[in-house]
Automatic annotation (TrEMBL):
Entry's localization field: Mitochondrion inner membrane
InterPro entries in the cross-refs: Mt_import_IM_translocase_Tim54 (IPR021056)
Highest taxon in the source lineage: Eukaryota
Membrane topology: Single-pass membrane protein
Transmembrane segment boundaries: none
GO biological process terms, semicolon-separated: protein transport
Pfam families: Tim54 (PF11711)
Protein name (database record): Mitochondrial import inner membrane translocase subunit TIM54
Keywords from the UniProt entry: Membrane, Mitochondrion, Mitochondrion inner membrane, Protein transport, Translocation, Transmembrane, Transmembrane helix, Transport
Family to which this protein belongs: Belongs to the TIM54 family.
Length: 427
């Protein structure tokens, strides 16, 4: 006698469609332990990633709504948009010099574009490039202010180009002694010819007299300005680039929590758009015997983001010795190259078959190569002296009245109290 339970209409209909009976009678059960672990980890990571990216969009939209009204305002037809210069530099130990600019484009630029804030990105590809560029721009601007140099000619401008005076340019972008134009390449060339390590004499080359730079006058060296003109406000943005196998956990955590960077970038952009500033917090004067005591020093704007220097690779401390080792190796190999170049140039011997296929560098090319290498080594050393963790930021007391820092705008309640206080004082 059959004990098979009666089949329902749906089950009987599915059997006639060709579905095996084992499939219809099979009861669902949990996957194996390995499958459960895999599904749990995968779904958790996917959920965290989706949540993080949704929060990023939400944060961006939140701050876009805060500054959206500024883009809808009708400005004066004679006004100019605000211009912001974004400075980024290569992170020590990372060969990708564009990481800082990529961080800015992903986290900051969106909240600036809506309220008609124009920006220019300046990236330092090597250490010290930004310092050299900013110094050259300041010198050029001061020479124009003092009338030592003339501005660009207007002849090449479009016919309806709105010409602006120096005061109008100052109003658009508040920019911050007597300066001489210095040709650094000419100075380095003379130094290489005069030092004892210069093994390439100039007697074998055609003589060409070059104009020497006039020595700076003692009067110009002593005319140091007592004050520094007001400089554009500064927006300090925190940035860290994790480099190395030891920091892989930080990279993973950073990638899964991108919303924190987006919020920090949106807040920084909001501070810049609202244009609330305060004077810079200068470093305090070190007390007597501070070098032998452990007295705590308060954090100032000069010490901003100093803790991130702890993520520098420890191998960077050997940068000066690495450069000196490369320089020593180069100068050890240079005499042999010079001998070959002179022998071939003076027809002392015939070139070999390999030298015919691959001509060795001439003496002129060796001089140019030495010049290029020395420039690179010296720039790298100066750049490392700037970014190394043990180097303190140089400070001049005259900057205290010239530099300002962007800060968070006051809250709505504080803003109303400030307006009411101003109205009361006016009445």
């Amino acid at each position: 006698m059959s004990t098979e339970p009666p089949k329902s209409g749906i089950r009987a209909a599915l059997e006639y469609t060709g579905i095996p009976k084992s499939w219809l009678s099979k009861r669902p059960k949990l996957p194996s332990r390995n499958w459960l672990i895999f599904l749990t980890v995968t779904s958790s990571l996917t959920g965290l990633f989706v949540y993080d990216r949704r929060q990023c969009k939400k944060i961006r939209q939140e701050y876009i709504d805060k500054v959206k009204h500024l883009s809808e305002e009708t400005p004066d037809h004679l006004s100019y948009p605000r211009k912001v210069t974004v400075y980024g530099s290569k992170w020590p130990g990372d060969e990708d010099h564009d990481q800082s600019m990529r961080y800015f484009r992903n986290t900051h630029s969106l909240s600036w574009s809506l309220p008609a804030v124009d920006y220019e990105m300046v990236n330092g590809k090597r250490h010290g490039d930004l310092a050299t560029r900013i110094a050259d721009e300041v010198k050029k601007r001061r020479r124009l202010d003092l009338g030592l140099d003339s501005p660009a000619d207007r002849a090449g401008m479009p016919p309806r180009y709105t010409w602006r005076t120096k005061e109008q340019l100052r109003e658009q972008e508040l920019n911050g002694e007597l300066l001489d134009i210095v040709d650094h390449d000419e100075e380095l060339s003379k130094e290489l010819e005069a030092d004892g390590r210069c093994i390439i004499p100039s007697s074998t080359l055609p003589y060409k007299q070059s104009p020497s730079l006039p020595p700076p006058s003692p009067a110009s060296a002593m005319d140091v300005p007592a004050t520094i003109p007001a400089l554009p406000p500064i927006l300090l943005v925190s940035f860290v680039d994790y480099v190395g196998i030891k920091l892989v956990p930080h990279m993973i955590w950073d990638w899964m929590n991108r919303r924190h960077h987006v919020r920090a970038g949106a807040e920084a952009g909001y501070r810049l758009v609202m244009a609330n500033t305060r004077p810079i917090n200068p470093p305090a004067t070190k007390p007597l015997f501070s070098d032998i005591t452990n007295a705590p020093t308060p954090d100032t704007d000069v010490d901003f983001d100093k803790a991130m220097e702890g993520y520098f690779k420890s191998s960077l401390q050997s940068t000066p010795s690495d450069i000196e080792r490369s320089r020593k190796k180069y100068y050890e190999q240079l005499p042999a190259k010079l001998v070959i170049a002179r022998e071939l140039a003076r027809n002392v011997r015939e070139p070999t078959s390999d030298e015919v296929k691959y001509p060795p560098p001439t003496e002129v090319e060796l001089r140019a190569e030495r010049m290029t290498k020395e420039k690179r080594w010296r720039k790298d050393l100066r750049g490392w002296e700037i970014v190394k963790p043990s180097q303190e930021v140089p400070w001049d007391p005259r900057f205290e009245n010239a530099l300002t820092i962007f800060i968070d705008p006051p809250k709505e309640s504080e803003y109303k109290e400030e307006l009411s206080a101003n109205d009361t004082q006016s009445n």
